[in-house]
Amino acid sequence: xxxxVESGGGLVQPGGSLRLSCAASGSLLAVNVMGxxxxxxxxxxxxxxxxxxxxxxYYADSGQGRxxxxxxxxKNTLYLQMNNLKPTDTAGYYCVLNSGGLGYWGQGTQxxxxx
Length: 115
What we know:
Elements: E1 2-7, E2 10-12, E3 18-26, E4 33-39, E5 46-52, E6 57-59, E7 67-72, E8 77-82, E9 91-99, E10 102-105, E11 109-113
Parallel strand pairs: 2-11
Antiparallel strand pairs: 1-3, 3-8, 4-5, 4-9, 5-6, 7-8, 9-10, 9-11
């Protein structure tokens, strides 16, 4: 039983920053991949970034140069630092975990970028 709980979303002005957190609990394997998806209103859900247990990262084009994904393995916590936010970043952001061939999803946290 794995649970993922996101936090850190909210309303921010264009150009601002947010840091999302995802706290994982339960029986996590040492080798796993965690990441972030987002879904904007009327849009398909898209991958934002991933990071494996060794720290190898991947970024979708949408966040390259602005977003940084990191993790604290000791705390089983995933982060997404988002800088220079744009209105097009407005979406529900979802924490994901792939472990032992199984996928887990958090409930999501809303990010709204607007004036």
